[in-house]
Amino acid sequence: MLRTIDFTLALFGLAFGFPILLVIYVLGFLDTGSPLFVQERVGRNKRPFALVKFRTMKLETKSVASHLTSASSVTKTGSILRRTKLDELPQLWNVVKGDMSLVGPRPNLFNQKELIFEREILGVYKVRPGITGLAQINDIDMSTPRLLAETDAKMIQSMTVSAYFGYIFKTVLGAGSGDRVGE
Predict the structure, then answer these.
(1) Alpha-carbon gap, residue 57 to 44, rounded angstroms
(2) 116 and 146 in contact (C-beta within 8 Å)?
(3) DSSP string spanning the chain?
(4) Each residue's pLDDT tens digit, 123-147
(5) Considering the chain, what is the average pLDDT of its residues?
(6) Phi, psi dihedrals of residue 41, rounded to the nearest 5°
(7) Which residues of 153-170 are buried (b: 16+ CB within 10 A; e: fewer)?
(8) Which residue among 7, 32, 39, 57 has the highest number of C-beta atoms inside a 10 angstrom radius?
(9) How far, rounded to the nearest angstrom, does the alpha carbon of residue 76 sit from its chain's CA centroid?
(10) CB 176 within 8 A of CB 88
């Protein structure tokens, strides 16, 4: 049932959000010349998938977890996109394709070995990764692998339709600050 809700809401979001997506795309093009960012991430059952986001960092930024990246790598436009979480909007396409859910554990990189280990132990990879979830609305990011994995597992074990919509509404209303970047 949640997959049907995911698909419907993501398709609706892409269709009705198209003007916003287009404006952000143009601003991103003017900012970096390459407005979309595609990166291989760990998906359900540890299968790789191509995550799509709006670019928030300079082109030459190394592909590592955000908390390991210098704040000076974030562009002016990127700073606004990250703060408002609008950089996540292209992931609606990942949801439509079935790579992701609107709600689930944030997909990590394959080089985040400690997080992969912690998530494997707790069975986090049995579900689709999500755009938002319990960890995100509580400012828990990938810089604390064990806490993140435990929070993800707690969310998965207690997921209901009500909780699903609650995470979405809290995210839209501004809960959580998004992925932190290094100093």
Answers:
(1) 26
(2) no
(3) -HHHHHHHHHHHHHHHTHHHHHHHHHHHHHHHS--EEEEEEE-GGG-EEEEEEE--B-TT--SS-GGGSBGGGB-HHHHHHHHHTGGGTTHHHHHHHTS-EEESPPPPPTT-HHHHHHHHHHTGGGS--EEE-HHHHTT--TTSHHHHHHHHHHHHHT--HHHHHHHHHHHHTT-S-----B-
(4) 999 999 999 999 999 989 888 999 9
(5) 88
(6) -130, 165
(7) bebbeebeeeebeebbeb
(8) 57
(9) 20
(10) no
Q: What is the pLDDT of residue 62?
A: 56
CA distance 119 to 47: 14
> Amino acid identity of 100?
M
User: How far from 91 is each of 42, 74, 78, CA to CA, in Å?
Assistant: 14, 19, 16
The single residue listed with the structure tokens 């394709």 is: 97
Q: How many residues does the chain have?
A: 183
Res. 183: pLDDT tops 50: no
